[in-house]
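MOLECULE: protein
FOLLOWS: sequence and fold
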Amino acid sequence: MKRLLVCLAVAGCAQAGKGNSIIGGLGDAGMGPHTDADDVPEPDASPIDAPPQQVTLSQTVSGTIELDNSFACSLDNKTDMNSYFRVFTLADYNITTTLHVFQIEFAIQSARGGQGPMQPATVRIGTYGVAPTGTTLDPAQIRPLRSLDIQIPDGMGTRMPVPIEADIPPTTSVIVELAIPDGTDVGNVFFIGTNSLGERQPAYTTEPNPSCGAVTVPTTMQSIADKKNFGNVDIIMTVTGTAARRSAAMSSSTAAISACARATATWLASAIRTASSRRGAAA
């Protein structure tokens, strides 16, 4: 009985109102004849979401930039066309509402402009229709949303935040791309920032030049690194926005409340049956 009272208290704090079958159970049922005492409404176990908050999506175990760990398609020490991708499935981050992206950030191992202290690049963001599997992405699943031309300053071991806005539905994935154009004619050098400390999901790259393998479909960076015996090469790239998230604590609380609610509903059904039987016997 003590456990039942605790359950009643927890359920009462969780949700109150006319439609609550736990709070209004006995009163709604009354003590008169009841044709189907087992017909107890299903307790409300809808997810509890936190208010919208800032969230940063990351897939690398660490954000530390390791020098001399990255690679790119380069000719005569000048960087050719390369693109770098990450795909973040929002469900993996317990995001339950639209993600309002406002920034992408990528790490830079080294950047040097051939004709000045900057070099051009393009940042793109979109949705990816399915959860990625295998070593390649399916271009047919990519739906572009925004594109922004940027200038990357010279530097080594730095990071570059890029303000860009997009709304990503919670049931899909967000794909981001950093596209580096062919810089061989002007002498540009760019190596994206990486480390060898591990990643939860793979990053992808393209290197369309035939001299670099003619990789025209986004292919996991690591599968290419393995072929070149480069060790672990994990791209450091993040997405930041605002969204509501379901925390582990909230999910546990919801489960506990639901369990108590179910136990209480069972007890109420039994009480109603007993009361009805006694009234019938007295009559």
